[in-house]
UniProtKB/TrEMBL annotation:
Pfam short name (any one): PRAI
Superkingdom of origin: Bacteria
GO BP term (any one): L-tryptophan biosynthetic process
N-terminal signal peptide: none
Name of the protein in its database record: N-(5'-phosphoribosyl)anthranilate isomerase
GO molecular function per UniProt: phosphoribosylanthranilate isomerase activity
Organism expressing this protein natively: Spirosoma fluviale
Gene designation per UniProt: trpF
SUPFAM superfamilies listed in its UniProt record: Ribulose-phoshate binding barrel
EC numbers on record: 5.3.1.24
Catalytic reactions of this protein: N-(5-phospho-beta-D-ribosyl)anthranilate = 1-(2-carboxyphenylamino)-1-deoxy-D-ribulose 5-phosphate
Length: 223
């Protein structure tokens, strides 16, 4: 039976205003703009990210991905880009959410949780308790010498993700290696609030309208 809830779609690694427009026309609910990262293919300059934010109409959400971990650096990054949502791709100190909400009350905070093993569940629930407005489950590895904080093209253990969705009191996005071939299984296994995709809708690094259209249509049929 079809769920009465629509699975939201966030298109990440937006690298131009034209890509943003294509994503919106094809049904994206949110756009992701990747800031400076230790690794990954999707980074864009803050100036370009700010232009995309300016060109994005409501109700489309603009997610600014930041690898910064201090309140001052995160706020400075948000002020440069102007996005309405901050996606924290690395772990941050416990009081960060409260401080960011005081300084940026209109901006939503999405904490990325890199799903590694069952211990990740506690990490996710703690972020919710501390003030994250949503979670985004990805497949990076922050424990490597050169941190992987997303954009890996890999899936992770969706059974762990499912348990996080079941226990979270805030919306949960699923990311990491999604594509048209695995999206059905992803939705059926994890039942996320939304999906987040980068490499699965790209060809030679560019947003591929055909792949995106297929992906979004599949999500709309399955949700
Ligand atoms: O894309 C990047 O370069 C990147 C770097 C560091 C953190 C996050 C990054 N992108 C995010 O990673 C997810 C998953 O990407 P993929 O679908 O597995 O290719 C993507 O949705 C972005 O949010």
């Amino acid at each position: 039976m079809q769920s009465p809830f629509r699975t939201r779609v966030k298109i990440c690694c937006i690298s131009s205003i034209a890509e943003a427009q294509t994503a919106i026309q094809l049904g994206a609910d949110a756009l992701g703009l990747v800031g400076r990262m230790p690794s990954g293919p999707g980074v864009v300059a803050d100036e370009l990210a700010a232009q995309v934010v300016q060109a994005t109409p409501p109700p489309i959400a603009t997610f600014m991905l930041t690898s910064e971990t201090t309140v001052a650096d995160i706020v400075a990054h948000q002020r440069r880009v102007g996005a309405n949502t901050i996606q924290l791709v690395d772990a941050v100190p416990a009081d960060t959410y409260t401080q960011l909400k005081a300084l940026l009350p209109a901006v939503k905070l999405v904490q990325v949780i890199h799903v590694i093993d069952e211990r990740t569940i506690d990490e996710a629930l703690l972020a919710v308790q501390l003030g994250a407005d949503a979670l985004l489950l990805d497949s990076g590895n922050p424990n490597l010498v050169v941190k992987e904080l997303g954009g890996t093209g890999r899936i992770h253990n969706w059974q762990v993700s499912r348990r996080i969705v079941e226990q979270s009191s805030v919306p949960v996005f699923l990311a990491g290696g999604l594509n048209e071939g695995n999206v059905r299984e992803a939705i059926e296994t994890v039942r996320p609030f939304g999906l987040d995709i980068c490499s699965g809708v790209r060809t030679n690094g560019q947003l591929d309208a055909q792949k995106l259209e297929v992906f979004i249509k599949l999500v709309q049929q399955l949700a």
